[in-house]
């Protein structure tokens, strides 16, 4: 049976643009673009996990609004269920802690990035 991995991602919108971040050259999906976020820890609510991940990865605070969507993707290492939420910056400015690049893009521009498979 495949390992189930529950992941949350933030679709942070400012001025009609969405924050996209690039994974480092180490670890899974080197160099791929994704929504900031990460794995839900045992006993954690999805929104709490997302707030924690954004503090850890971007050193800022977001307001988490409605769910965008939930997708399920089978990888070789397990099945990732990715739930994304609409977010707004609440305090601070995103500062990259783990990722190597960030860009704010319009919905039209976003499709041009090389995304992690579950995000497509
Ligand atoms: N954060 C994030 N992860 C994604 C996205 N799309 C996607 O397939 N993933 C996958 C990559 C990983 O297999 C998993 C999340 O892993 P992660 O490395 O970001 O999680 P984490 O911050 O909890 O990291 P770690 O402590 O386990 O190292 O979900 C996405 O848009 N955002």
UniProtKB/TrEMBL annotation:
Protein family (similarity comment): Belongs to the Nudix hydrolase family.
Gene Ontology biological process terms from the UniProt entry: DNA repair; DNA replication
Protein name in UniProt: 8-oxo-dGTP diphosphatase
Species in which this protein is naturally found: Marihabitans asiaticum
Nudix hydrolase domain residues: 3-120
The enzyme's E.C. designation: 3.6.1.55
Annotated catalysed reactions: 8-oxo-dGTP + H2O = 8-oxo-dGMP + diphosphate + H(+)
Cofactor: Mg(2+)
A GO molecular-function annotation: metal ion binding
Keywords: DNA damage, DNA repair, DNA replication, Hydrolase, Magnesium, Metal-binding, Mutator protein
CDD domains cross-referenced by the UniProt entry: NUDIX_MutT_NudA_like (cd03425)
PROSITE patterns the UniProt entry points to: NUDIX
Lineage: Bacteria, Bacillati, Actinomycetota, Actinomycetes, Micrococcales
